[in-house]
TrEMBL record:
Pfam families in alphabetical order: Sds3
Keywords: Coiled coil, Nucleus, Repressor, Transcription, Transcription regulation
Coiled coil feature spans: 80-129
Presence of the UniProt keyword GTP-binding in the record: no
This protein's GO CC annotations: nucleoplasm
Subcellular location: Nucleus
An annotated GO BP: regulation of gene expression
Extent of Basic and acidic residues compositional bias: 214-228
PANTHER family: BREAST CANCER METASTASIS-SUPPRESSOR 1
Region (Disordered): 179-229
Organism: Wickerhamiella sorbophila
Name of the protein in its database record: Transcriptional regulatory protein SDS3
InterPro entries in the record: Sds3
């Protein structure tokens, strides 16, 4: 008979060793059966995977497809939202740019109109002043020519011929001086009273009227003949052409005319 250990620990160790020997014997006897079952299960799973009928695989595949569809839907919605927001922002910026463009164009047009209107007014004033200056110069020249014909037709013709051959700057200076003298006469020569200016103007008008009434036909014919025949000292002089009026001279003339007109108005 087999003897059992006396202690409790020894008995437990003996039972465990006996159990392991039984398991080893059972495994040795049933090893082929277990391996065959595992091989059959693996082959069945592989066949189901190849055929697409594996339940676990199909469930996993369905989960992945669902996740994929959800992700694609989210991406599509996000892209659509971004596109709509970009289009909306583009339309707003376009409207704002068009509004700014229209506003800027309106401001530019208004400024251009105002500038052109100021230029037009200035040109109209300059033209009016030039017309006044030309009229005064013409009347003063005619009055001096008629007054000179009373003192002698030869002296008048010589003076007018000399003036005819003056340069452009000399004629402009003479015209400015005559216009200044005329305005000074209208204003009483700046140092006299208004009564003295009116008296001198009436005296000059009376002299001009007497000169016009006292001029006869023969004196005018002699003056015209003298004008048609140039003097001998100018025969050899070649024609140099009319000098153009410089911009600075024109501005100086306009400034002088404005100053004299203002002074005449205030007086």
């Amino acid at each position: 008979m087999e003897e059992y250990p006396a202690s409790k620990r020894d008995r437990r160790r003996h039972n465990m060793a006996l159990r392991l020997r039984q398991l080893d014997g059972a495994f040795e006897s049933e090893r082929d059966i277990h391996y065959n079952e595992m091989l059959h299960t693996l082959q069945t799973s592989l066949y189901a995977l190849h055929q697409g009928t594996n339940p676990e695989f199909l469930e996993r595949l369905a989960d992945l497809e669902e996740h994929r569809d959800n992700r694609l839907t989210e991406l599509y919605l996000w892209e659509r939202y971004q596109t709509e927001q970009a289009q909306k922002q583009y339309e707003e910026e376009k409207e704002q740019a068009n509004a700014e463009y229209e506003h800027t164009m309106q401001l530019v047009k208004e400024k251009l109109r105002a500038r052109l209107e100021s230029y037009r007014k200035r040109l109209s004033e300059d033209r009016a002043l030039l017309d006044v200056a030309n009229d005064h110069a013409f009347f003063l020249t005619a009055a001096s020519a008629v007054g000179g014909s009373m003192n002698g037709s030869g002296a008048s013709a010589s003076g007018r011929l000399d003036r005819a051959f003056l340069s452009a700057s000399d004629r402009r200076s003479l015209r400015r001086r005559e216009f200044t003298e005329d305005l000074s006469g209208l204003s009483g020569n700046e140092g006299g009273t208004a009564t003295g200016g009116r008296s001198s103007r009436r005296a000059r008008n009376a002299t001009n009227s007497d000169a016009e009434t006292g001029t006869d036909r023969g004196d005018l014919d002699s003056v015209l003949k003298d004008l048609d025949a140039p003097p001998a000292r100018h025969v050899t002089k070649s024609y140099q052409g009319v000098k153009t009026l410089r911009f600075e001279d024109g501005l100086a003339d306009l400034a002088a005319i404005r100053d004299q007109v203002k002074r005449a108005k205030w007086r």
